[in-house]
Amino acid sequence: MRLRRVFFSLNEQEHMNRRTTGTEDRRELQMARSMCWHCQSEMAGEYFCDRCVKVQPVSKDLDYFTCFGLPRRLAIDPQTLETKFYELSRAFHPDFYQNKSDAEQTISLDNSAMLNTAYRTLRDPIQRAEYLLDLEAGSVKEIRTTPPADLFEEILELQDTLDEFRASDRASDNASTLRTKLQADRATLEQRQQDMDAQLQQLFGRWDALQDRGEATEQARAERASILKSMRDLLSNRTYVKNIVNDLVATIA
Amino acid sequence: MARIVGIDLGTTNSLVAYMDQGTPRIISARGERAMVPSVVALTDNGLIVGDPAKEYLTRDPERTVYSVKRFMGKSLADVHDELAYFPYTLAEKGGVIRIKLGEKSYSPPQISAMILKELKIRAEAFLGESITKAVITVPAYFNDSQRQATKDAGMIAGLEVLRIINEPTAASLAYGLQEKTQGTIAVYDLGGGTFDISILKLKNGIFEVLATNGDTHLGGDDFDQLIADLFLGEIRTQYGLDLSAHPDHMQAVRLEAERAKIRLSEELKTAVNLDLPDGKGRFTRELTRDQLEQLCTALVERTLGPCRLALKDSELTPDNIDEVVLVGGATRMPLVRQRVHALFGKQPHCELNPDEVVALGAAVQADILSGGTTDMLLLDVTPLSLGIETMGGVMSSLIRRNTTIPASAKEMFTTYVDGQTGVDIHILQGERELAENNRSLARFRLKVPPLPAGVPRIEVTFLIDANGILNVMAKDMRTGETQSIEVKPSYGLSDQEVERMIEDSFKFAADDVSARKLIEARLDAGALITTTEKSLADGGHLIAAGEVEAIRTALSALTAAKDGNDSRAIRARMADLEQAAKGLTVAMLDDSLKQRLQGKKVSDVT
User: Are B10 and B191 in contact (CB under 8 A)?
Assistant: First the structure.
């Protein structure tokens, strides 16, 4: 019996929790209550107990931005991120826990695995944006099955050309005509990708600016919702176009 | 903590190193070379290892094992093409390669263990203490079975293998420590039998592997073979001699080919001399570097593909590489250096002895693990993607290749068929689209309540630890039913289990679902036929003659179906037979109950 991959957020459950309690409150609650697993003292330290210096498990509710001590912004300085990643790697890596207790080794392993995932996610601008959307709006990762409206005609035609090319004798004149046409389509789509990337950058900038202002007005809330929606649409269009381009490149290769 | 040594268990040579107050050093026995040739020979006085064994390569080729690393974690089918080249006898027992030495057969880990034991003894004599723990290096592109076979070799030699580390990363540790390098480096490692390329970022003591790629069956041995083939062909045409009937001469040709190759790294031409059997005199010829390079170009080219892939995976271009480091004896060849230079656009570094740098790096990692070195940290990656099989026999990756370890990933899956009561979690390793083209690491089954397709939510979690050992957990989000396993490649299991598993994998070698279904159906049918026949013999008298006849008819129908190729027909006939034999089963149960009750008082049974 086979499995089918389900495309929805892994954090779905967490989001439901968040929506009911509110992320920030929840985390504060968590922090305030947290006790060292080892010496039971109330902790003030971030990842290590202030009293017994034992490594502490990173809370499952901690988002990747907070983990790296960064604000929830889409512009991240890669150097800062890397420095922090190396610093935390030194703190958590299992190599440094070989002579420690089993409990500490388990925490070190889980923390390291989480840290590596967090770094991989935040390092890539697109994955970072998708993650932020997920955090902010509980995004169900949409996999587009139909072309974006403004590309509808073009993509349908492209699919026909691709089908025709696949069925054709590669050595024939027809195939070489089709190939030329496909090359042109590829250039168009790649230009389109660049345009989308530029639009995304703009949205990222708007998001960060809005967050920096930190206004709690009705207008700010509306803008926030609108940016998130635009980002989501663009990201899913981008993925769609990227898949089409990959398919195209693989076909004419 | 007891001292941990670092060991480079190579295809051609092996070395052991230790950390001496912040500096890694190679251990050499008194008056002997530090390198132990990875050769094991059976002599009349027992098994010998290293340099003395190497003399037996031509003296007693059938009982002298070399390049055993090529067979680690492999089945005979995997290495089928190269068997003809090895003078010693390889057999297979239950899918595991066995090397015949005299009366006995040894698995590749057992032979490797003999080499490790020699290194252990040397280290103990040198350091004056008992050594029980080691870090052993393997090619970065080794898969899980090959790694596990290496671990087992350590265990057999009486060493606890605290960590298996990748050879190019080990080399980078030694290199980085010595040269105080910062920046992005490429380690090009062409050894006796394997090729690896790793791209790393070195910064303030952190060694972050960005990407790794390679070929586990490409190395100096292959160059030697090409040269040897050239000589053998010429001997055949000039003297009408087929040396393959003379294993000792075959070995002599191979060794002369290797020596000529080595000499041509320094010289432009060299004389080749070989004594021939049957009083045919001597074969002599001159070999030039040009001729050698012509022979070997294609092999060197084969290393460039993995280099480009590694660059692509790390999202870098050759311009971004600050330094190129050469590791492995085969990188002494000028042709290799030229090609690497051309690809990366910079002169490769070879300050460190390419034969020793891996063992030195292993000693550094050993020191990190023992708590001695705290300013260096290696962040390695998993070389191959890991995932599970999904709808349509497709591999769905959870952890992509070149992901930093430790790593974890979670993904949600659902069922495909209405009322499905269980899902098979089939764990795969590899880069191919289709499950059948990748390596199968393990499978297990998770029970789910019967629901319409798409309704269950099954969360699959992968966790790879710093040793690269994978743990998989599957959880039904609705019921909380959880199943998890530590994925131990076949070599991690007991011998019996290993053999059975490999036997199974052979049985299903077609990897074709329908073929597998057919095999399973036939097995089940066979078992049902046997038990039914036995029941008929034991209890046939308990039922009506007509019923016996019906069972016999169903039995022969199933036997006929079993010989056919339709698994569904077999399953259908099995159901028929079970139906027909129902009465018999009940009658036998009643009968045995009656017999047991006889002679007992009612009070005993109520």
Answer: yes
Q: Phi and psi at residue B345, in whole multiples of 5°?
A: 70, 25
The string of pLDDT tens digits covering residues B463-514 is 998 888 788 888 888 888 888 777 765 543 344 533 433 343 333 333 444 5
Amino acid identity of residue B217, one-letter, is H
* Domain chopping of chain A, boundaries: 12-137, 149-252
The pLDDT, as a whole number, for residue B471 is 87
Task: Note the CATH architecture for domain A12-137.
Answer: Orthogonal Bundle (1.10)
Token digits of residue B246: 């003379």
pLDDT tens column, B202-232 = 999 999 999 999 988 899 999 999 999 999 9
Q: Is pLDDT above 60 for A26?
A: no
Give the nearest chain B residue to A108 (CA atoms): B406
B513-597, which class in CATH?
A: mainly alpha
Give the gap in angstroms from C-alpha A177 to the nearest C-alpha of chain B.
Answer: 30
Q: What is the fold, at CATH topology level, of the domain defined by B4-219+297-379? A: Nucleotidyltransferase; domain 5 (3.30.420)
CB-CB neighbors (< 8 A) of A2 in chain B: 389-393, 416, 423-424
Residue of A8, A99, A112 with shortest CB distance to B1? A99
Chain B stretch 180-219, residues whose beta carbon is closer than 8 A to a beta carbon of chain A: 203-204, 206, 208
Right CATH number for B220-296 from 2.60.210.10, 3.30.930.10, 3.90.640.10, 2.40.440.10?
A: 3.90.640.10
- In this structure, what token pair is assigned to residue B339? 């090609």
Contacts of B488 (CB under 8 A, 6+ apart): B148, B442, B469
Distance CA(B242)–CA(B233), nearest Å, equals 9
Strand partners, B7: B16, B136
Model confidence band, residue A31 (pLDDT cutoffs 50, 70, 90)? very low
For A195-226, give the DSSP string. Answer: HHHHHHHHHHHHHHHHHHHT--SHHHHHHHHH
User: What does the pLDDT look like over B335-375, one tens digit per residue?
Assistant: 999 999 999 999 998 888 889 999 999 999 999 999 888 88
Residue with tokens 């040709």: B253
The CATH superfamily of B384-492 is Substrate Binding Domain Of DNAk; Chain A, domain 1 (2.60.34.10)
